[in-house]
Amino acid sequence: MCGIIGYIGHREALPILMQGLKKLEYRGYDSAGVAILNKENNIEIQKCKGRIKYLEDMVREKDLKGTIGLGHTRWATHGKPNDINAHPHFSGDHETVVVHNGIIENYLSIKENLILNGYQFISDTDTEVLPHLIQSLYQGNITEAVRNSLKIVTGSYALGVISKKEPDKIVASRSGSPLVIGIGDQEMFIASDIPALLNYTRKMIFLEENEIATIEKNCIHVVNLEGEEIKKKVVYIDWDAQMAEKSGYKHFMLKEIIQQPLVIRDNLVKYIDSGRVNLSDIHLPQNIVNSLEKIHIVACGTAYYASLVGKYAIESLSGIPVEVDYASEFRYRTQLLSKNSLGIVISQSGETADTIAAMRSCKNQVYSELAIVNVKGSTISREADQVMYINAGPEIGVASTKAFMGQLISLYLFAIFLGKAKKQLSGQNEEKILNEMMRIPHHMETIFSQDDKIKSIANQFSNYQHFLYLGRDINFPIALEGALKLKEISYIHAEAYPAGEMKHGPIALLDVNFPVVAIVPRDHVYHKMINNIKEVTTRDAPVIAVASESDEQIKEIVDKVIYIPDVQTILSPLLSVVPLQLLAYHIADILGKDVDKPRNLAKSVTVE
Ligand code: F6R
After folding, report:
1. Which of the listed residues 192, 251, 302, 410 should we mutate to test ligand 1's pocket, taking the one with most ligand atoms within 8 A of CB?
2. 604: pLDDT strictly greater than 90
3. SS (H, E, C) 62-77
4. Reduced to 3 states, what is the DSSP secondary structure of residue 306?
5. Could you tell me the distance, in angstroms and rounded to a whole number, from the CA of residue 400 to the centre of ligand 1?
6. Which of 173, 319, 433, 516 sees the fewest Cβ atoms within 10 Å?
7. 399 CB less than 6 Å from ligand 1?
């Protein structure tokens, strides 16, 4: 949802801004721009429609020199992607520029007022009200002009402002959209996320809602909307720059799929102590566990599908009922919550607008809100009562893979922790599950070793227009996730159904041109799945099965089989999702799609 980068220091700003924009491109990629304050104290803007590479070609021809600047990569909300609507945006007097991520919801009324006062607008964006408003309120102090402007606007924003009136500063603020400040040696940075800054610094400051930072090359001053000074903590980030590189893989998505065994290992090392789950950071006293009546999980997209797997795991291991909601639905529906319930929010980025809103909407209505998050310092990680990190490292591919794996493993560990606390799970069974979990990374390698076969299946199926994914029980959410992966990166229509539901409608779609992907491990619903597969093949639809290694019959009844090692049912999603990620990846790659940056999508959805 738009990426922002800013630099102030002793180096040329342009290369730093361009490198930062490339790292942020996954957040939005329909236009991009930079503004540099040059030695003559003029602000020069270069911006254009399209990917960063077009901006790169554009700035190569120009002599953009200066040590202060802002950059932006856009995911359009208000105003079509074109050169004019691209950021940065100038004030009418060309003295001030703004880059913005978010939506100014009351921009129309502000715009009308400004027009009445003689201000002229050239773009169709909501953002353009900001530089004009800041200009209109400027009385000798740029921070105050920004602060007074932010008192007027409603909506969400992360923004960076530079002004030739005070050429030694960047003013930055956020509310509802992420922004991090990086601290270097005689230089400072702003960015929409941490990986964009890892080449320069690991010392970061995270702004809270409505805080306004005045950033000079060697100092930062933060105030709130009321103008009161705020002391900020410097956080040291333990990710390194290499973690945010492709490291020889063709795409980030492929690298991130292959990293999944590592994500599992890292979490097991962190959360298992002497053969037992140890979630010492989570505070759930025994009396609270005893009286827990329900768990509410909210999330969006892939994190929502991980939550559904979590529901099966928590209910079966602890006996506590779990309700899972889309955050965008939960925030607006009647919420029947009680202090005897626990809220869980799941988010890779920790910045998804609907998930944040859902979390805020049940604040203090449940015993506690636990966030299962990847990005440290993110809004959700700061606002939740408790945090469990999924330790997946930076996820750059827009389609989530390793974060999904981190979410699953965290939910399993949490389910075991609850099962033990509720005395539903014996020490012996805990040991059995954990022992099997420890073998999952190795099992995954055996799936990776079938990659050539998966690629060849992808080749044979890449020209179909529709796919149906089927699964049952704990593998139904994996069917949903497999279908999501395929549609978001290959643009092929795919939908998922619980296999037993198929004959209540979707079966009408099936024919020789409508392949079905069936997740059919040898578990308690195996024979039901086999019946459903027969219903499919009877209608001539081709079937790709994800099946257990020990299943010798399956190859006789389906067209293609990808085998996964036999594990106990509850853990099978950790393996069954991997071939589906690879299948989607290869189909999209064969079709020549931009796997890491699919059209219309952005990595973190910071608008509603
Ligand atoms: C799909 C995908 C999205 C995200 C969703 C939530 O591959 O990545 O569906 O899962 O936008 O994002 P987070 O987890 O950052 O809240």
Report:
1. 302
2. no
3. CCCCCCEEEEEEECCC
4. helix
5. 6
6. 319
7. yes
User: For residue 375, what are the CA distances in angstroms to 180, 348, 352?
Assistant: 12, 7, 12
pLDDT digit string (tens) for 94-106?
Answer: 999 999 999 899 9
Q: Which atom of ligand 1 is nearest to the CA of 304?
A: 10
Secondary structure of residue 36 in the 3-state scheme: strand
Contact 103, 607 (CB under 8 A): yes
Ligand 1, atom 7, lies closest to the CA of 399
Size of the chain, expressed as the number of residues it contains: 608
Q: Give pLDDT tens digits for 337-346.
A: 999 999 999 9
Rounded Cα–Cα distance for residues 196 and 22 (Å):
8
- Give, for ligand 1, the residue of 192, 348, 355, 596 to mutate: max count of ligand atoms closer than 8 Å to Cβ: 348
Which residues on neighbouring strands pair with residue 205, listed in sequence order? 181
- Asked, as a colleague might, if the bond just before 88 is cis with ω within 30 of 0, I would say yes
What's the whole-model pTM score? 0.81
Residue 242 confidence (pLDDT) above 80? no
Structure tokens at 299: 């999330």
Q: Which residue has 């292959």 as its token pair?
A: 258
Query: What is the predicted pLDDT for the residue at 241?
Result: 77
How far apart CA 469 and CA 596 sit, in angstroms, is 23
What per-residue confidence (pLDDT) applies to 46?
Answer: 97
378 lines ligand 1 (CB under 6 A): no
With a CB cutoff of 8 Å and minimum separation 6, the contacts of 596 are 26, 251, 252, 253, 396, 397, 398
Lay out the sheet containing 386-389: strands in order across: 322-326, 294-299, 341-347, 368-373, 386-389
Q: What's the 607 CA to ligand 1 centre distance in angstroms?
A: 13
Tell me the DSSP string of 480-515: HHHHHHHHHHH--EEEEEEGGGGGGTGGGG-STT--
2 has catalytic annotation:
yes
CA of 489 to the centre of ligand 1 (A): 13
Q: Please indicate whether residue 352, judged by its CB atom, sits closer than 6 Å to ligand 1.
A: yes
Q: Which is nearest to 245 in space by CA: 430, 138, 383, 396?
A: 396
Give the residues across from 161 on adjacent strands. 98, 171
C-alpha span between 320 and 15 (Å, rounded): 53
Q: What is the DSSP string of 545-571?
A: EEEETT-SSHHHHSSEEEEE----GGG
Q: What are phi and psi of 326, to 5 degrees?
A: -65, 130
Q: What is the DSSP secondary structure assignment for residue 210, as one 8-state letter?
A: T
Give the distance from CA 290 to its chain's centroid. Answer: 34
d(CA 215, CA 161): 10
pLDDT at residue 54 greater than cutoff 90: yes
Position 219 pLDDT exceeds 80: yes
Chain position carrying tokens 């991130």: 256
Identity of the amino acid at 445? E
Cα(522) to centroid(ligand 1), Å: 30
**Does 169 participate in catalysis according to the annotation?**
no
Which long-range contacts (C-beta less than 8 Å, at least 24 apart) are formed by 420-424? Answer: 420/277, 421/284, 421/286, 421/289, 421/318, 422/289, 422/290, 422/292, 422/318, 422/319, 422/320, 424/317, 424/318, 424/319
Measured CA to CA, the distance from residue 235 to residue 394 in angstroms comes to 17
Convert the pLDDT of each residue in 473-513 to its tens digit. Answer: 999 999 999 999 999 999 999 999 999 999 999 999 999 99
DSSP string, 354-377: HHHHHHHHTTTTSSEEEEEESSTT
